[in-house]
Specification:
Length: 162
């Protein structure tokens, strides 16, 4: 293999981006074995619903997208049986989105896949190196001021939802 001048060992941004792309592709491919309709962008909506149904407007605000984008994606996922939309019992004008049993199953499958990928990395790198890498990446996110958004599940999608 010919060394490429742009592939520098100390380019943390490049290697992190490439690893994230590789892991996302692997995780999505595995998830699509059981849930072929799921797209990468759907995961952002799913993460908003982990703690229960939420109003469309709140989800949109958290993701930095329009209510229309959330509604369109929710409509697609509703047709596929992953989410259900209901009216808010206190305000009938407000629509809430929540995971169905099928949606929860997809979320659980995604978590299991992530655990599998972590185990594979631990096996390839050794447990100590894998844990050190994870701590370093978390520290890098904290240094960038990104932890609050991550902890609040307010990371916006890089790709459009709809």
């Amino acid at each position: 293999m010919v060394a490429q001048p742009w592939l520098q060992d100390n380019d943390l941004v490049l290697w992190t981006l490439l690893l994230a792309e590789d892991l996302n592709a692997a995780a999505l491919a595995r998830l699509q074995e059981a849930h072929p309709e799921i797209r990468y962008a759907h995961g952002f909506l799913f993460q908003q619903l982990v703690d229960g149904p939420r109003p469309v407007g709140e989800v949109a605000e958290n993701l930095g997208v329009t209510s229309q984008a959330v509604s369109k994606t929710a409509g697609q996922l509703e047709k596929l049986g992953y989410v259900a939309r209901t009216r808010d019992p206190r305000d009938g004008r407000v629509h809430r989105i929540g995971l169905t049993d099928r949606g929860q199953a997809a979320l659980d499958a995604g978590r299991e896949i992530r655990e599998q990928l972590n185990r594979e990395l631990e096996q390839a790198l050794g447990e100590e190196r894998a844990h050190t890498a994870a701590r370093a990446l978390r520290a890098a996110l904290a240094a960038r001021g990104a932890m609050a958004a991550i902890e609040e599940r307010r990371v916006p999608p890089a790709q459009p939802l709809a």
